[in-house]
Design a protein that fits this description.
The complex is a heterodimer. Chain A is α+β, with helices and mostly antiparallel strands. Chain A has 15 helices and 24 strands. In chain A, a hairpin with a 5-residue loop joins strand 8 and strand 9. The longest helix of chain A is centred in the C-terminal third of the chain and has 26 residues. Chain A is globular and about 70 Å long. Chain B is of the alpha+beta class. Chain B has a domain of 61 residues: Alpha-Beta Plaits, CATH 3.30.70.20. Classes of the chains: A alpha+beta, B alpha+beta. The interface between A and B is large, with 77 and 70 residues.
Chain lengths: 662, 114
Amino acid sequence: MTTWHEYLESGLPAPEWPYPVRYGSEIEVETDVLVLGGGIAGCHAAINAKRKGARVVLVEKGATKWSGHGGAGVDHWLNACTNPCSRITPEEFIESVSRDCDSYDCGPSLYINAQEAWETLLDIESMGVMVRDMNDEFKGAAFRDDETKLMFAYDYKNRIDIRVHGHNVKPCLYRELKRLGVEVHDRVMITGLLTEGGRQAARVVGATGVNTRTGEFYVFRGKASIVAMQAPGRLWTFSTEYRSMWNDLNNAGEGFAIAWNAGAEFVNLEKSWPAMITPFSYIPYGVGNTSNTWHGTPIVDTNGKEVPWLDRDGNEVRTAEERFEPSPGQKFILGPGQHVPHTYENDPKVLAPDLSERIRKGEFVLPLYADLTRLPEKERRAIFGLMVGNEGKTRIPVYDILTKAGFDPDKDMLQVPVLPVDAYNKTSGVNYWAGKAMPLLRAGAGGLLVDWDLRTNLEGLYGAGGTVSGAGAHSTAATGGRYAGRKAAAYALTAAEPIIDPEQVRKEKARVYGPLQQKKRSIGWKELNAGICRIMQDYCGQYKNQETLAAGLRLLRELREAECSRVYAATPHDLGRALECHTMITVGEMVIQACMVRKASNKFLSFSRIDYPAMDPPEWQKYLPIRLEDGEAQVRELPLDYHLRPPYAAGYEENYRIHCEL
Amino acid sequence: MREKVYMVPNQPTPNRAVDFNPDICNGCNRCAQICRNDVLMPNAEKGKPPIVLYPDECWSCGCCVQECNRPGAIEMLHPLNQSIVVIWKRKETGQEFRLGMKNPPAPNTRPAAG
């Protein structure tokens, strides 16, 4: 009797909620550094703030031991430019990314990542994650350095992305948190930030939260706070029937909403792209593909005819290992995972980019297959045994399940999904093939604007991980957390005692418990979520104009006042989900308002205005930081290289040395 | 047919998300303690497997399986609209297999690297 339905049919009375319910009871917690979110960024932040001598409290909506977007594991560690085998300096790396992203996504976070990714990897190695080939399983492989036993991905010559056995990264981080004495509060969802005097844009002095098992209310008081949550993931699309598997349901966007309400500035919220992971997606990395983890995999058609791999000049790549080397004249290959389209300069080796046309002409016959048997044994084992076997969301969901069902990469070819023919062409430099891209359904981007301290515009509020613009990958989240932890601790150790405004707490508490007061026949969180998505799909979709954006904003506000004010919660768990709908409406408002102020189409931001169709007019090549002030969105202009202009130094390295707190 | 029939709502989709083997599971609730979405609830009956209360909220991350220290107690299940198209072909024989098929081939027992 393990399903709810079996329980109902047993004739026993409905089981009571298994945890004690204490709605309204209030728990006060006080600390130096308050870390909001216990994923990869949050754990590194807490560990490093603690090492600096601060008292640290970490608050996590799920269970810190395994939760977070990178919680299920990591198989390759990006941008470790300072590892002993690397041939790329952090300066060369940042210059290259800047070129790819037209300077939109390469602020302090990414440079810090290039500087500290290797040190951070050594850190998790010391906690028990196997980051080298300690068993000599891959001895002699082209991607392995026999002296250090490090193994590399994507570019075997320049060696900045490291293949790791990171399935246990979260339990290792969790053990270290406990060993250091970080106070962890699991199952507590953060609902708002507290500011000095309850005023917007004032110093952040804490946060409120609600326990989604017990319903208890939390008031956290901290000298410094770090928002370390993931970006919103179900704003345009949500379905539990046809699930979009990439985004954890927990990623509703609290980090965005709480910082916005407190008056923090955001950039690039107007950026979005056609969601690959739509309701029509497949198991990520569980079907034939050549993306990320599966880079370099041979693809054959149904008759066994192999699709060629080409270099950036269109020349055929003969051997498997060449797929992992720069093209003639190319400095290095920037691996995927940066969420930036590649320019010619950084283009990796790819499957024939005109594959769709060649399928149409009959040159290749569907279905296609990923044929790992064509690779040398060590390459095959690295892709399926090491990477799929260790990555979050693939160790159990793909490696374990497929091998138990009999799949053997030494003997079998894994089918590529049968997609609309156009979908076989490369998108964003990779052949992911785990979903049908739908321009209607967007995946959002952007996030907090931070300075060289990874601080926001608000005193006492720092950012790391997915909530920060351009800082979402596993190693970027780790390095951002590490750095923000140091900076927040340094601030907290000399900062004045934070004082909480009781009126701000009282108002938030009333809002939080609202869904418990509603009639049981009013709307539930799932239907409300789907309604929010419909507004975003229709009024903030692929093509935008001022009128429809304004109408979308109006609809969101009406939804908040009508249906959302009546959302009903039956349990503490339900209460959390209902409050996430409040959050998503706020995030929708943020995104639409950011779209309304950019009156120009922009290629990098995948931003198409019907009323301003000219693409990339030079006067609009700038950030438009946006924040909330007295209920109104306020926008200003900021150069894309703001972090290299006064009051900062002109170079990345100099700024890093001045601010890094090492 | 003497079974009593109750009025029950439709099952949420996916229906199960994970399946417990009651002969192996000892109801320790380690999985319920770490599930990020609280998909699993401790069973009121001590020693029994957790109840899959919110299968529709499962992220399919497999952390419950990683956390479990009794191998075989939990099986993670992909929703049918995902698993039905996980298909592979054995090169030597041309045989096609799929996840969830009636007569699956022998398991591949090689563990992941590391």
